[in-house]
Amino acid sequence: MAELRKDQLRQSWITISDKRGKRPTDFSRSDSQSRDGASVGPCAFCHGFEHVNGHETFAIRDGDQDDAPDWRVRVIKNKYPAVSMDDGELKLEGEGTVYGACRLPGFGSHEVIIETPNHQLTLPELPASHIAEVLKAYQARINFFQSDSRFKFCQVFKNRGNRAGASMTHSHSQLIALPVIAHNRMCELDGSQDYYNKHKRCILCDVVKHDTQLQRSRLIDENEHFVTIAPYAPMYPYEIWLLPKRHASNYETINEDEIQAMARMLKLTLQKIDQAFRYPPYNYTLQTSPLGEGNFNLAHYHWYLDIAPHLTTLGGFEMGSGCYINPVAPEKAAEFLRNCNVGSS
Amino acid sequence: MAELRKDQLRQSWITISDKRGKRPTDFSRSDSQSRDGASVGPCAFCHGFEHVNGHETFAIRDGDQDDAPDWRVRVIKNKYPAVSMDDGELKLEGEGTVYGACRLPGFGSHEVIIETPNHQLTLPELPASHIAEVLKAYQARINFFQSDSRFKFCQVFKNRGNRAGASMTHSHSQLIALPVIAHNRMCELDGSQDYYNKHKRCILCDVVKHDTQLQRSRLIDENEHFVTIAPYAPMYPYEIWLLPKRHASNYETINEDEIQAMARMLKLTLQKIDQAFRYPPYNYTLQTSPLGEGNFNLAHYHWYLDIAPHLTTLGGFEMGSGCYINPVAPEKAAEFLRNCNVGSS
């Protein structure tokens, strides 16, 4: 059975997922794993293989029959989930004093958002209107987990390429919902609350204002509802934040106009990354407020999409300290990405 | 010029290191980088190449002539440092309100501890008495940075194998000293202080006691001064904590007996990892209290060495949430490593 465990020293939860368990000899040392899109398909995520994956939890299609093959975006349970909703009663347990109240069953949901039935297309190769449907799927699923009070946290993310953690080449994102708030989000909530207490303003509203009006050296692109910037203190080279101009702590409150504008901006940004670094592995993560009433409509927190190509290898310094060494100043990264011409979307 | 920058949202410092800067096209996509020890040498870290590296900052040798080739352990400045002591006056600056007081010059020191003059030997292949000298070099350098009040933090770490961040195969560790305390250590200090406030005891003293006396399922090995355990909530599969039995917040207070015992325990542990996973890439990081009087002899913090083989690929979930998915329960990892027989050291 999977478990969630808290490290009281580091103040963070981790997931122990036996279902994904391996014997020591099962860990591969192969490095020939970065072929992106090299698989020819079809695969289990393709059109016509719906029966392989069990029932969908959400889909966008023209017809009205669940699990039919006419979908454009389809959400299913991950076949090798890190957590599952079968895993027992949500009761904090532990072991002695030092590990007291540090264990929960591995309750949660791990879903896959299949972005297109077409095995050959990558996300930025889809029309912006189709990318908008992927973003709507994120919204629908977060709304679903908002409606179940057992869930406290939902992380939407995309791994592209094996080196970025993807095991399937067919274009997809994922979502993990948990009954605890993950460490990084707690840190961001603390940081944004601190800033708000000092200045009575949202930190990312101030970032958008500063980087579009006062000092545009980190600005990459801008449309009516969104900006992309190279963050002032980026952890990764060419890291990009895609920020909504309208203040909102919760992604799921995004409206139709904004979804369309975000889709265009995401397409443009991923096209630039693919062109600049020749289809690199990358991740993006949706940083949005935790679930539950107490975390809804916060004045201090502002959701954003954090996009990072995988260009460097992390080592012991980053692992031990959490201080990342970035070889590219964000002002230089932004200048390069701003001038990347990929044609209009 | 390198810079240190603070992300006020995430509350963490990062290093922008132009000296390691690259143009977008310089980022390699090659994956054929995990050959461990496959380089035949000699290299710049080898015996007889002392002149290539500039003056040593510390060495252990029989003779008394600096930079002479009779060293056994030698510490030099990193040729491609992330930070340097030339980088300007230590004055907090910033940009506007949102990035106010968020920038320091890239002041610091980045050193390489060459663990042996012999290109062919890995750290666990050295005699324990030689490993003890490597551990003494760590101690000497931390003591040096303790004596300079501009430094607030020192991270000792080892990257073994390219996938773990190493660019040289010749056995070495590194050290980065900074004028700010890195995020992960701040979190650990908060966590250990919280536990101390609640229980009036050190959390890692309690861990040692629990895992050696009450519930030994996570215990791997034990000698007179040290234990190795699989931590209760490990971020990585087969992560190992090497913990001193005597409470001490600062590694540099280690005594001669303890250094010898730690060397034997480190040798045994790395031998087990090499045998179990066939010479995998790995990192270890020395988690010790920050520098400065206010962080010396803390009752709540307890130094330790965190050892993690690189067996899995991290993805967007870990990047966005800080919640790690570990496919191996620590009790199973400990059982396997406990029973790993590598002969006596």
UniProtKB/TrEMBL annotation, chains A, B:
Residues 5-177 form the Galactose-1-phosphate uridyl transferase N-terminal domain. Binds 1 zinc ion per subunit. The active site is at 172 (tele-ump-histidine intermediate). GO terms for biological process: galactose metabolic process. Transmembrane segments: none annotated. Residues 17-34 have a biased composition (Basic and acidic residues). Residues 190-307 form the Galactose-1-phosphate uridyl transferase C-terminal domain. Keywords: Carbohydrate metabolism, Metal-binding, Nucleotidyltransferase, Transferase, Zinc. Zn(2+) binds at residues 43, 46, 119, 170. GO terms for molecular function: nucleotidyltransferase activity; UDP-glucose:hexose-1-phosphate uridylyltransferase activity; zinc ion binding. Belongs to the galactose-1-phosphate uridylyltransferase type 1 family. This is Uncharacterized protein. It comes from Physcomitrium patens (Spreading-leaved earth moss).
